[in-house]
Amino acid sequence: MRHRYSYLDPDLIRQLLAEMGLRRLFNHLLLQTGGDVEEAMRWMRALQERGYIDPNIDLEAFFARLVEENIIGQDANGNVVLATGGERQIRRDALDEIFGGLQKSMTGSHSVNNAGQGSERLTETRQYQFGDDPMSIDSIRSIQNAMKRIDPADPITITEGDLEVFETEHNSSCATVVMIDISHSMVLYGEDRITPAKKVALALTELIISKYPKDAIDVLLFGDDAKEV
Q: In the 3-class helix/strand/coil scheme, how is the chain assigned residue by residue?
């Protein structure tokens, strides 16, 4: 028989319930159980039996809503598992918790000190080249170039050589690797350091997926050896 020993801080449970309710507590328990949905559900039932959750709350109805919202579901073997919506919700909760105070200053792209393909228009212009975005054409400079080329009495005709386009600030993609220490030192003296590390990894994953969709992110666990998850 396998025995799993875990510690749940009663003050933290009360705080989570007061701040975000059952859903925030459920997500926290999922992190504590390593994503084991059925064990997280058992813990919630046990917490209600011990008086931490209002006995008038219908937990089974709460679990049913999670199924309807694609937060949890069943696998081919009939086991209750985390669904796609649940994975996304946990990442977003971690992002809100860790980076919530920084959201107003976040940018949507990685800027570098070079001109190139991007979305941020610069004041500088250059001659049009085949394949340039027509929306980037500087109409005023292009007309001025045509007027300089032709006789003032002639009608204005614009050729490709007259066209100028705005430069744009180049946006670069980025590859990120998050490494989480799962060695014995992370639980030394009974202090849980792994759960905060998981939250950081989840928050960073959600940040990159939502803000930098062209970037790549990988998560590695290392202790006696290392593996990608």
A: CCCCCCCCCHHHHHHHHHHHCHHHHHHHHHHHCCCCHHHHHHHHHHHHHCCCCCCCCCHHHHHHHHHHCCCEEECCCCCEEECHHHHHHHHHHHHHHHHHHHHHHCCCCCEEEEEEEEEEEEEEEEECCCCCCHHHECHHHHHHHHHHHCCCCCCCCCCHHHCEEEEEEEECCCEEEEEEECCHHHHHHHCCCHHHHHHHHHHHHHHHHHHCCCCEEEEEEECCCEEEC
What does pTM read for this prediction?
0.49
User: What's the pLDDT score for residue 103?
Assistant: 45
Q: Does position 75 have pLDDT exceeding 80, yes or no?
A: yes
In this prediction, residue 45 has a pLDDT band, given cuts at 50, 70 and 90, of: very high
**Nearest-angstrom CA–CA distance, 228 and 180:** 10
Q: Residue 148: count other Cβ atoms within 10 Å of its Cβ.
A: 8
Question: How does pLDDT run across 170-183, given as a tens digit for each residue?
Answer: 556 678 888 888 88
Please give the C-alpha separations between residue 201 and each of 28, 177, 183, in angstroms, as whole numbers.
14, 10, 17
Amino acid at 145: N
Residues 194-201: what's their mean pLDDT?
80
